[in-house]
Structure formats: structure tokens, C-alpha cells
Amino acid sequence: MRYVVPFAYTVIFSLFGVYVLITKDGKPIPETSATLKETANHTKFINKPVDNSPSSLLLSKLYKKQDAEQLRSVKRLNNSDVFVSLNSEELPNVSAFGTNFSDPFWAQKLCRGTDIENCSAKFKQMETRLRYSSKYNMSACIVQKNMSTMLQAIMCYLFDEDKFIASGRSVGRESHHGKFCNRKNEVDSSDNSTKAVIKMRSLMKNWNLFAIVREPVDRFLSGFVDKCVRQPYNPKNGYCNGCASNMTCFIQSEYKRIITNSKKAIPSRNFEDRHFFPQSWRCNFETEFDRYKFIQYSSNPTFEDQFLSKLFKIFQKQGVPKQRIAYINDQLSGGRTVHSTVESEARKFFEERLLSSPFLLEYVFRMFYWDFQLFQFKLPSYGSDIPKDYF
């Protein structure tokens, strides 16, 4: 995501530990501001003596591992010779479902009447992953590829801000592996213990719930480039449904998995499914939909201001102090996680290939039809032309 800073300042740290806030017009804000003091408190651990404790050494090792992974990721994501050669086949220009691509409104006419059988189910009880802050009486639904790594880190920070910062952690550098809040503020449907079930029911019933929902095509592209190009899961045994980095193969195979699981009472899922199955199948949305606040998200810059504004309004309503929100905002504006692919050569290549192919796009629209409808993302109106302003 291309993060932006909605507040009218940026934080600059000098080499001598002096903190200065600069407004957009270049004027400094007095150092007595509450926000400045809180920012200084959140970063004062930088000036502490070197900590050689086991926890600090473990964190240092974790961050070094992240840095190494980042370097490998950049190499894979920009090695165009590999992923271009794996996607050199000519794409069909005729629909696999009999759709008339010459009709500029063909996408909006999908999944009507009996054609609904060729589209994903509206709801399924696939998976629920909640991250909560008891202090602020709120819980976030975690959906893979919906800013999930960053959202988990934010909820971990809000679970206990002081301990999080004192540990030397940073929201911008938290990852799924070695996370500070591991099992502390987490409830997952995969944990079938009585205690977990009771906790989940309590969160669903009494707490304020919110979820980040992502534009479906953007989410698919992010997931494909991340899991099928950047860092494949179990590459020796045939990753991405045995399709490797071939997008056509993967789209068709994952479409079949979604349609098959749409007809099952309880969907089965593999690693890829967790990252590509519809968003509407998560977090018990079928019964709790009206209780959730949904925040739209996309790598399209037009979503950025409204995304952060809605997120911070939820935090403000739940009583999160302004200085805590300012820290989160600073972390969000500081860069992307290791999973980010939006500016890579791979993302550019696959985005253009997908958006220029009605044949492939139709599969994606059918896979995520209800994500478009339920979360109020518009299906585009165009014939066979590339929608230049899609992202």
C-alpha cells in the first residue's frame, strides 16, 4: 500500500535525540505539544545502552532475518526473465462461460439468475481470526492480504502499548513469525478448546468489531505475486496448486476450488486457499455482518486518505488517545512490510496481463463476486480495453 500521512506533520529525529515536528509548510511545532512528547516517549528506547538480553538478541536476530528475506524478495520480484517466460502463452479472447465481451457492461451482468451457479457462494464459515484490545473494547477481523500483518501489529500495540514499546518492538517491523503478542490477544477458529470458543463468543457478542476489506482484483494480484512469485510456500512440492508462477493455470485451478467448496457445508482449505478464498467467508460474517464496521482498502491512491481516516475514527471512538494514534500513523507512513509487492516489476507485469484479459478477469470476478457486492466495490464497465484507471 502507498501509505500517506493524513496529519499535518512529520516526525524528524536528530542524531542527538532531539525531536522536532515539522508542518507541511515547513514551520516547526513547539516541542511542548502532547503529540511530540508522546512520540519521544515511544522512541526513547533508541537512546538506551546496548541491550544484550536474550529477548533483545532474539529480536535483533529476527530483524536481520527479515532484512535478508527482503533482499531475496526484491530479487525474485524483479527477475522478469523467470515470471515472463512462465506466462508466455497466448490468452484466449473468448469467454469460457459464453459471456459477450463486446458488451461494455458484461462484468456487471455476471452471476444473475442461473449463472449464479458459476460464481462463489455468498457466505461460508471458513475461518475466523480475531485480534483484540481489551483496553479499548474492540476486535479486528484478520483476513490474509488485507493488510493483515500490519493490522495484527497495530492491535498488538493497542493491547499493551507500554510493554510493546519497552520491548524494543516496532509496529512497522512486526511479522507473523516471532510476534510480540503471540497468543496474548488472539482468538482463532482453528483453536477448538472450550476456552477459545467462549472467548470468541464473548468478543463477537459484546465488543466493537471491524474489518479491513480489500478491492478484490487488487487483493488477488497482491496474493498471487506474494505467494506465487515472491516467496512460494513449499516450492519443492508444487506450490500455487501446482501452477508455480503461471497466473492462467492458478486462476483456473483456484476458481475450481472456490466453486467446489461453495457447495460444501464446511470448506476445506490449503495454504493458498487461506490467501485467496473470498473475504466474505471469514470471521462469521454471515451472522455478524451488520455488527462489523468495514474499512475499504486498495493500493489505488484514491483509497488512502479515506482508509486511514476511517481507521482512526474507529480508534478515536473507542477512546484510543491521540498520541497513540499519532504513533500508529507514523508507523504506517514509514514504509511497507516485507510482503508488499505493489511497486515490483512482477506486480506491474501481472497487473497488466490480468487487466488486459477479459478471459482471466471473468474468472476473478466470478471468484469474488460477493466481495464486490457486499463490500461495495464497483465492477468495472468496459469491453476488451484495459481499464487504465483501475489502480
What's the SSE blueprint?
Layout: E1 9-13, E2 19-23, E3 28-29, H1 34-43, H2 54-77, H3 80-85, E4 129-133, E5 138-141, H4 148-159, H5 161-166, E6 186-188, H6 194-206, E7 208-214, H7 216-230, H8 247-262, H9 271-276, H10 285-288, E8 292-297, H11 304-317, H12 322-332, H13 345-355, H14 358-367, H15 369-374
Parallel strand pairs: 5-7, 7-8
Antiparallel strand pairs: 1-2, 2-3, 4-5, 4-6
Structure explained in plain terms:
It is a single chain. The protein has 391 residues and is an alpha/beta fold. The protein has one domain. The protein is 42% helix and 9% strand. The chain has 15 helices and eight strands. The strands form two sheets. It has a five-stranded mixed β-sheet with strand order 6-4-5-7-8, sandwiched between helices. Strands 1-2-3 form a three-stranded antiparallel β-sheet, covered by helices on one side. Helix 1 packs across helix 12, helix 7 crosses helix 13 and helix 8 packs parallel to helix 14. The N terminus is likely disordered. It comes from Panagrellus redivivus (Microworm). This is Carbohydrate sulfotransferase. One of its GO terms (biological process) is chondroitin sulfate proteoglycan biosynthetic process.
